[in-house]
Amino acid sequence: MMIEAAALSKAGGRKGNQDSFGSERNDNGGCWVVADGLGGHAGGETASRMAVEYVLAHFRKAAEISGEFIADCFRQVQAAIQQKGVEELGLSGMRTTLIVLACDHENAVWGHVGDSRLYWFRQGKILQQTHDHSVPQMLVDAGKISPQEIRGHEDQNRLTRAVGQDGELRPTIVPTLFPIEEGDAVLLCSDGVWTYVLEQEMEADLLVANSADEWLNLMEKRVLARAEGPYDNYTAVAVWFQGAMKK
């Protein structure tokens, strides 16, 4: 399987960048991670960085990808961040969103906590999309607002789940392995991206992009054209699956 990937992460209108991302590739597949830290500059940056590091370390030791692999990633990150917060008073209460994608030569699996999103595109259209763990998403589920009204909602930043929280974490994980088809594309991004780039614009930019990197650059232009003031950090990872899906 041929995999092309690209990434970008910028501070935006903030002084520091609390987003983190990372990837790991081997002969059997790959793993990609995006995390958006919460809890003050030091805490948020530490939490998101730890999340990425622990997930990738776990991937390096994994025998195969599965829903249980994703669940283990979240358990390990949750425990590590909570422990770090106990050990260092200045990091108490730090949290992070987390989206994890892993694949082998034929299938993918992913899971998330918070409002960092994964979009799966097939034939240029969104086929799968994660649902935020947030107050506005609850309003969407209850039929009170439309999905597009999440953007700019007064409670957009109020999350219902975040890694590092007290109690049970309950990540959302795809129930079965997801078959990959040639030409599929995936976008993992923090809310600093999807707040300013609409889903139909993601599809339009994918249609004209000649590479994963160009796709991200086109979407970044939209962010920069619309964001004002001390706007949020923005991070995105693009993964393109090309060629025959064979070992």
What characteristics describe this protein?
five-stranded antiparallel beta sheet; 247 residues; 32% helix; alpha+beta; Phosphatase 2c, domain 1; 6 helices; seven-stranded antiparallel beta sheet
Would you tell me the structural class of the helices and strands? Answer: alpha+beta
What is the helix tally? 6
CA radius of gyration is: 17 Å
Spatial separation of the terminal alpha carbons: 7 Å
Please tell me the CATH architecture by its name: 4-Layer Sandwich
CATH superfamily: PPM-type phosphatase domain
- Unreliably modeled segments: none
Sketch the major β-sheet.
7 strands, antiparallel
The portion of residues forming beta strands comes to: 25-35%
Number of domains: 1
Q: Please write the CATH class name.
A: Alpha Beta
Which series of helices and strands comes N to C? EEEHHEEEEEHEEEHHHE
What does this molecule look like?
The chain is of the alpha+beta class. It has one domain: Phosphatase 2c, domain 1 (4-Layer Sandwich), CATH 3.60.40. It has helices at 41-61, 67-87, 135-141, 191-194, 199-208, 212-226; strands at residues 2-10, 19-26, 29-38, 95-96, 98-103, 107-113, 117-122, 125-129, 172-173, 178-179, 185-189, 234-242. The strands form two sheets. Strands 2, 3, 4, 5, 6, 9 and 10 form a seven-stranded antiparallel sheet that branches. The protein has a five-stranded antiparallel sheet with strand order 1-12-11-7-8. Helix 5 (199-208) crosses helix 6 (212-226). The protein is globular. The chain starts with a strand and ends in a 5-residue tail after the last strand. The relative contact order is 0.21.
